[in-house]
Amino acid sequence: MPKETLRDKLDGNELDLSINNLESVPVKDLAALPKATHLDLSRNLLKVLPDAFCSLTHLIKLDLSKNLLTELPRDFGQLENLQHLDLLGNQLRTLPRSFCQLRKLKWLDLKDNVLEDGLKKNAGDCLDETQCRNCAVRILRYMTDLDALLEKQSQVELKRQQGNFFSLQSQKI
After folding, report:
1. Which of 13, 16, 56, 146 is most enclosed, with most CB atoms within 10 A?
2. Beta strands of 104-152 (E only): which ranges?
3. Among residues 53, 111, 103, 54, which one has the least CA distance to residue 83?
4. Residue 64 to residues 95, 155, 161, Cα–Cα distance (Å)
C-alpha cells in the first residue's frame, strides 16, 4: 500500500485500514506516520503480524478484530503506549509472554478466540466498557504472574543444569 494512500486515510490521529483485504501489514509505511496513534486493521485477512510490527511504539489504540490471527509477535509487549487493544474474533490461543509489559493497557477485548483455559477465565465476557476494562486489568495481572512463574522455573532449570555440569566436571577430575 503506497504511503500516499495511507496518508490520505489519516484523519487526525486515526488511520482506518479496516476492510481492505490486507494479508500483511505495511509496517514500514505505518512507521513513517507516527501521528497515527489510533490504527484500525479490523476485518482484514491478517494471519500473522511481522516482528517489525512491535516497533510501532507510537500506537495508543489498536483494532485487530475479526482477522485470522493465530498468534501475536513475541515482542508485542514493546508496544508500551498501547491503551486500547481489540482482538475480538481471531484464532488466538495464547498471548506472548511479553504481553505483561503493556502497563498502560486499559481496555482489552479477547472475545471469540480459542483461548487456553487460564486466559479465557481471566478475560471474562467483555460485553461492555466496564467488562473490557476489567479484562485488561485481569489479563495483565495473569500474564505478569505467569511471567514470574516461568522466570522462576527457568532459574530452577538453569541451576539444575549448572549442577549437572559441575557434577560431570568433578567426575572427569
Report:
1. 56
2. 107-109
3. 103
4. 14, 35, 41
What pLDDT, in 10s, does the model give residues 31-88?
A: 999 999 999 999 999 999 999 999 999 999 999 999 999 999 999 999 999 999 999 9
Contact 64, 87 (CB under 8 A): yes
Any bridge partners for residue 86, and if so which? Answer: 63, 109
Domains in the chain: boundaries: 6-171
- Residue 81 Cα distances to 49, 78, 161, angstroms: 18, 8, 38
Question: pTM of the full predicted structure?
Answer: 0.87
Measure CA of the first residue to CA of the last residue in the chain; give whole Å. 64
CATH architecture of 6-171: Alpha-Beta Horseshoe (3.80)
Residue 94 to residue 99: CA distance in whole angstroms: 10
